[in-house]
Amino acid sequence: MAFRRTEEDVLMTATPFTATILGSPRIGPNRELKRAVEKYWAGNLDRSGLESVAAKIRRDTWESLTAAGLDSVPVNTFSYYDHVLDTAVLVGALPPRVAGVADDLDRYFAAARGGTYDGTDIAPLEMTKWFDTNYHYIVPELGPDTSFALHPAKVIEELREARALGIPARPVVVGPITFLALSKAVGGAVAPISRLGELVSVYGQLLELLADEGVQWVQIDEPVLVTDILDNAAELAGQTYKVLGGLAKRPALFVASYFGELTDALPALARTPVEAIGVDLVAGTAAAVAAVPELTTKTVVAGVVDGRNIWRTDLQSALGTLASLLGSVGNLAVSTSCSTLHVPYTLDAESELDPALRSWLAFGFEKVTEVVALARGLTQGREAIAGEIAASNDAIAARKSDPRLNNDHVRERLSSILASGAQRGPAARRREVQQDRLGLPPLPTTTIGSYPQTSAIRVARAELRNGTIDTAEYERRMKHEIAGVVKLQEDLGLDVLVHGEPERNDMVQYFAEQLTGFFATENGWVQSYGSRCVRPPILYGDVARPEPMTVSWAQYAQSLTDKPMKGMLTGPVTILAWSFVRDDQPLADTAAQVALAIRDETVDLQAAGIVIIQVDEPALRELLPLRSKDQAAYLKWAVEAFRLATSGVEDSTQIHTHLCYSEFGEVIGAIADLDADVTSIEAARSHMEVLDDLNAAGFGNGVGPGVYDIHSPRVPTTEEMATALRNALKAVPAERLWVNPDCGLKTRKTDEVTESLRNMVDAAREARADA
Ligand code: GLN
Ligand code: ZN
């Protein structure tokens, strides 16, 4: 089926759809894809074995979405690793260093993970967070020699596969503006976004090809349009979609946005010939959509079902939102606010959920049924879904009145502590009393918290879970691990020790399991990156700490040494960032409650004789709002939560924090404002910059810029770390400089860690001698 030139013609030939989602989970309901790709990497599964697992996951997904009643189903949202990397392949933008890998799938995995191919070491591409989610994408590298060219095999094959099954398939691709905005220039190449014109012509070829395949609709994802990453986003959107919309042969175009409001990019898109625009109505408002007159000739795909959190939709209110758009838009379709990639597959996999809690929730599959119900309500009238609305109202009312959502004791304590100031003494005075008490050498050495998660630890955890051993035996084994880690640190001559965190598999889960107001899922896995999945806890109610969570481990570890043992906690922002969080009150209020629980823990640690306490905030940057106008308010509450968590102790108790995984640029001022006595910060890639930035932000406390990258198995030499320290000393005086790795050591092997830390301690000695 070929389309002619004008917008009207395209609309006439492309059947409008009424119910869809923007994308779906793809790791398999029981993480089948994770297992299969890991076997393939290990050489225990061949390519056709892997492909048949993947094909089954795709088929099951499409069939279940179609059977549930979606009349347009996203395809090409499957991925062996990451959809941004898939897009790099689609447009021919893999870096030259992987070109020598002959097999296309291995080449793809080489870009994602690096490795040794035919005796050559290939470094992987970088990975970073996808907008403000905890999903990580592969950052495409565009060099001076990158020349875009269409490689459509994946999308065409998946499309044909779906159509052969009778699926109303809608191919999905990451859009050209978003792709370039998320790419990085390498080798002195021009800014990626300046190559938009070139890339748009490759997308034009793709659209023509899809039209030849008889595709009616194609979804082009442009989430970057809801951010301030580009300063001329609206203009670029207008130009790009005018060109693509003006193509003589193409399917109907559905430009999808999510994670925020389009603001001025919405009218800009509405003035182009695209047929449909997707808006996130969980993050944004219907009024902003109704205000754009050009939308009266467009299909608006209204994301009223939250695609990234797990709460059941208020169907009555969502139907009201949809109804408010009738008349302002040409056509209205119902959707999730974003891909459901960010939520688990289905509640059916949870057998131990309290029935009340279950009724408040909707995972991926349940969200599809909500979309379908709303679309029915929209076309057939409210009465047609009266039963669904009643059930949703009941669940929402029950949730509102559940006593677990409102703990007066916590709320009263919180307001009285906040009213009393929740502040520590001045930093300089704290430094003085801590110095007297701790008597540490200049450039003290320490580590970030975790030590290798050995197989003995994993076995113990599994045996405790399946009942082979009891808690007492488990604790005995963990203590054995702790003793080993303490002895190692004493032998190496580190100055401030840690217990190694053997009892924590995932740190956020560890705290969530011990706090009220949280519950854990059994099978609520969500892809974090590649084959790595996480199971975020659900923070549903008021948070309280019934009893100490870490004190006995810390106390035991301290009993083994005369050196100071750091207590090890996770900060409120990070606990929120890595959980599904209640949506019935501002995040700031929830953060304060978590902070209070952490504060209680610091006070108990101090009472147990712990003199240094670290409160990690690696996710501080992750929750930063996508629009700059919202960032200051976020940073304010994030800093307040950290200060609330850490101001319950005496000035003589030293508070550390740790940050990693991100570019700190926009949050550097907030890091300084945390006012921790010591901040360890990932810096192996650029020592000087982060220290200069901290200085520029007026930071005058202790700082430990990571002296080596823990992501690589390579053992760093004494010399390179000594050089790093000498460089650091140009920015920070010896009295303020700490020596530590970039991050925790849990993913490394014991031998690597031993050698690396031995060299690190030697490097510190050398640097001390020169300082
Ligand atoms: N203390 C934690 C660890 O060492 C910090 C983890 C992190 O920064 N992500 O593992
Ligand atoms: Zn870290």
UniProtKB/TrEMBL annotation:
The active site is at residue 711. Zn(2+) 2 binds at residue 658. Pathway: Amino-acid biosynthesis; L-methionine biosynthesis via de novo pathway; L-methionine from L-homocysteine (MetE route): step 1/1. GO terms for biological process: methionine biosynthetic process; methylation. Zn(2+) 1 binds at residues 660, 673, 682, 743. Catalyzes the transfer of a methyl group from 5-methyltetrahydrofolate to homocysteine resulting in methionine formation. Belongs to the vitamin-B12 independent methionine synthase family. InterPro entries: Cbl-indep_Met_Synth_N, Cobalamin-indep_Met_synthase, Met_Synth_C/arc, UROD/MetE-like_sf. Keywords: Amino-acid biosynthesis, Metal-binding, Methionine biosynthesis, Methyltransferase, Repeat, Transferase, Zinc. Its EC number is 2.1.1.14. L-homocysteine binds at residues 448-450, 501, 616. This is 5-methyltetrahydropteroyltriglutamate--homocysteine methyltransferase. GO terms for molecular function: 5-methyltetrahydropteroyltriglutamate-homocysteine S-methyltransferase activity; zinc ion binding. Zn(2+) binds at residues 658, 660, 682, 743. NCBIfam families: met_syn_B12ind, PRK05222.1. Its cofactor is Zn(2+). Binds 2 Zn(2+) ions per subunit. Binds 1 zinc ion per subunit. It is an enzyme of class 2 (transferase). The lineage of its organism: Bacteria, Bacillati, Actinomycetota, Actinomycetes, Mycobacteriales.
